[in-house]
Amino acid sequence: MGCRGGGGGGRRHRRHRRRRPPPAAAAAVQTAEWGPRLAATLDRARCLGLPPLAATLVGTATHEAVRGTVHLTPSWMAPDDTVAACVTRVAANVTGLPPGTAHGFHIHTYGDATTRDGKSAGGHYDRDPSMTHGLPLAAAEAVAAVAAGHKPVRHEGDMGNVRAAADGGVFFSRLYELVVLEHVVGRSIILHQAPDDGGQPTGNAGARVAQGVIGYKLVPKAKVAPPPTAGGAGEGAKGGAAGGGGGGRGAPLKGEGHSPTEGGAMHEA
Ligand SMILES: [Cu+2]
């Protein structure tokens, strides 16, 4: 009652409301519930906010017809509610290879394309120089490795093989759990003449047929996607929410927990 009336009374009223302490027990419960969820949301945002990278591949002296581009983009992998990880999608588009052939495909240590044979790029990239060579894991194994939090035994730059189609072109896309964008920028993509068979020390992939330095790429202005609407069945940008009783507000919040899923699996080439 003392708060009614003129402007001074109104200010006093607002002060009263601000000072009221939150119930301690309720705050503790809220923190326990929202802590892990908030951490996961921040991790996802940090992952998807990483700057994407790209490399332009140029044929080496013996394979001048080879040309290509490779894009490396962050991807949030959340196959289920118990595990999630920031991985990298590597997508390559290459032309000028012999039809139907497989080629070792790696990240090499140095972003140096000054020699025509590709050798100035050095060896396979890994933060641990004593790491042995290997081929990427199959999808299920890669997910299990991420879930278990252990690092598979292979170079971080060991990306396996790409295969040229009948026209000599490669259209390739795959997720890699060991490729970390911040670690590979400024290094090189190398395409080899022969397939990588996983043997030591570097997979017996032979000469280098194309090389390209990995750098930051120009990113077009972000398109802000509308929040997912679980009940919307994909139709009507505006109208969907008006339908069905009760679910309208809750649906986007529920969807938030699932939208990070990047298909779940590590796709094979
Ligand atoms: Cu290599």
From TrEMBL:
InterPro entries: SOD-like_Cu/Zn_dom_sf, SOD_Cu/Zn_/chaperone, SOD_Cu/Zn_BS, SOD_Cu_Zn_dom. GO terms for molecular function: copper ion binding. Residues 10-21 have a biased composition (Basic residues). Residues 67-214 form the Superoxide dismutase copper/zinc binding domain. GO terms for biological process: superoxide metabolic process. Residues 231-250 have a biased composition (Gly residues). It holds the Pfam family Sod_Cu. Residues 1-27, 225-269 are annotated as: Disordered. Residues 255-269 have a biased composition (Basic and acidic residues). SUPFAM superfamilies: Cu,Zn superoxide dismutase-like (SSF49329). This is Superoxide dismutase copper/zinc binding domain-containing protein. It comes from Porphyra umbilicalis (Purple laver).
